[in-house]
Structures are given as C-alpha cells and as structure tokens.
Write a structure and sequence with these properties.
Elements: E1 7-12, E2 15-20, H1 31-46, E3 52-57, H2 68-77, H3 90-104, H4 106-109, E4 114-118, E5 121-123, H5 125-130, E6 135-139, E7 143-145, H6 160-164, H7 166-175, E8 179-180, H8 181-186, E9 192-194, H9 199-210, H10 215-230, H11 234-248, H12 252-264, H13 266-274, H14 284-290
Parallel strand pairs: 2-3, 3-4, 4-6, 5-7, 6-9
Antiparallel strand pairs: 1-2, 7-8
Helix pairs in contact: 1-3, 3-11, 12-13
Length: 291
C-alpha cells in the first residue's frame, strides 16, 4: 500500500468532509482508496458530533473511475495472481467486486445524510461511488457517464433508474454517452449546478443547513426516504450488478479489449473505444482538458 494517503478528512461544525486526494491520478479508485474511504465513513458514522457527511475531491476531476493501469501493472508484476491455466473464478470475482460496492454503499447506508460535491470527470467507477450519496451537487464543468457500458463493464450501483427513470437510464447505459452537468440537473441526476469556483462553498452551505436539524430527526428521515428505494429491489440489483460486471469482463469482446489494452496500453484502448462516440476524452471538452 502506498504510504501517501488517498483520503483525508476535515470537520466544520457538525459536518465531516471526506476528501479524495489523488488529484494527480484524477482520484482513480484502487484498493487503498476503497479501504481508506470505508474507514473514514465508519468513523464519521460513529461520531455523535457529526450530523452530515460531505464527500469532495481534490484536483480537476472528482473521480475518473478505477485505476485500471495500476491493476494491469500489478498483474504483470505478480504473475501468480493471474491463475494461469484456470477458468474464470466467478465467485472470487464477485467477492472482490463486492468489497468495493460495500465500501461505496456506506454513503447510502450511513445513518447520516450524505452529500457529494462533484467537479470535472465523474465517470465509470466514479458513478459507482457517487450515486450512493443522498444528494449530488455539481460544478458547471462536471460530466457523468458509464463508458464501460460500451465494452468491459456493468454498473455496480443500482440507483441509475431511481435517479434517471427507466428510459433515460436505458439511454445512457445502452450508449455509454457522456452526461454533462447541466443535462444531469435537468434530468434530476444532480440537485444543483454551481459555478466551478463556488461548488465547495455551496455544498458546505447545504450541509450546514441540514445539520441545523437534530441528528436523530435526520436519521429517521433518511430511513423513511431510503426505504422507498429499498422496496424497489436495490439489494438484488446491487448483487446482479456486481456479478454482471465480472461477466462483462469475460465475454469475448471483454477479453479482446483486455488483449488490446495489454498490447497498446489502457489509455489507447479506451481512446479507440470512445472515438466513434466523440465524447469523454475524445470529445471537445475532453480534448480541452488534456491541454
């Protein structure tokens, strides 16, 4: 594990901020970030002085997904983990993926209200994380989406339908299309869009306003509201998403994608995947961010 923390926390009044701090990697998710995030959530949930949890991120992007290049390097340097000659172990894969899902879902299952403040990219695994938050505020430069829907992935977060409705969820997951902040607000995916420079202050103002309500009352309200979605089958959809994500990486197209990524690098493979759609890193906004 890297000695440099992936998460830091700050407390202001009754609001605990949990901050992703891998800005040089666009806060890409790895096991260290998962474990530190999980521990920070547990600590905030157990602290009676904390009423609201605010999730933020350093740098130009909230979270650009999983750190695929890091995982590829680990596999190459630790060949024993590749299980050469063995078939795909779906149970092992489900257990591994579920470890990430369980950590991220603490935003939903925390007794306390959770708010996410999103800037820049929030895509792929970033949505697996942030869609668990009770409320999402976005900067004008934010973009959401699940590009692995095009090949090599299925969302492990089951709340796409609850946030977008059936038809819009199908539109964005059948295409993997990018969803800019303004459109996300229009569709109800995010609560509010703020100027980039005002995102953190707006999110904190909302968190502090919510924290004026007694914590016990907030917890009752959250349980009441979340139960509506629980009754729609979030638990079973969460399980299926974790299982299908593993399956999608072992279809012929998924294996072909890995072969290409190993030969050319993940960045090149992703660029070729997204080029026909003209979005994310291959879109106008993405190319501006690369400069």
């Amino acid at each position: 594990m890297n000695s440099t923390p992936s998460i830091r926390t700050e407390t202001e009044g009754h609001v605990r901020s949990i901050i992703l701090c891998r800005p040089e990697r666009y806060n890409a998710i790895n096991a260290q970030l998962r474990d530190e995030f999980s521990a920070a959530m547990d600590a905030a949930d157990a602290d009676d002085n904390v009423s609201v949890i605010l999730l933020c991120a350093d740098g130009p992007a909230f979270c650009a997904g999983y750190a695929l290049d890091e995982y590829a390097e680990a596999v190459q340097t630790q060949p024993a983990q590749r299980h050469v000659g063995r078939v795909w172990d779906s149970v092992y894969d489900l257990r591994n993926i579920s470890a990430f899902v369980s950590a991220f879902a603490k935003l939903w299952y925390s007794a306390k209200p959770t708010i996410a403040a999103v800037q820049g990219w929030c895509i792929a695994g970033g949505t697996d994380l942030v869609f668990w938050a009770d409320m999402i505020m976005a900067a004008e430069n934010a973009s959401f989406g699940y590009p692995p829907a095009r090949v090599w992935g299925v969302p492990t977060n089951p709340l796409w339908v609850q946030r977008l409705g059936f038809q819009r969820a199908k539109q964005y997951l059948f295409t993997g299309d990018e969803l800019p902040a303004q459109e996300a607000a229009k569709l109800g995916l995010v609560l509010e869009v703020c100027p980039d420079s005002e995102l953190q202050s707006h999110a904190m103002q909302l968190a502090q306003r919510i924290a004026l309500v007694p914590s016990s009352q907030l917890q009752l309200m959250k349980l009441f509201l979340n139960q509506q979605a629980e009754n729609q089958g979030i638990g079973s959809s969460r399980l299926i998403g974790a299982l299908f994500d593993g399956i999608a990486r072992h279809t012929q197209e998924g294996l072909d994608f890995v072969t290409k990524a190993q030969a050319q690098g993940f960045r090149t493979a992703v660029q070729e995947r997204d080029a026909p759609f003209g979005d994310y890193g291959e879109g106008v906004k993405g190319k501006k961010r690369k400069r």
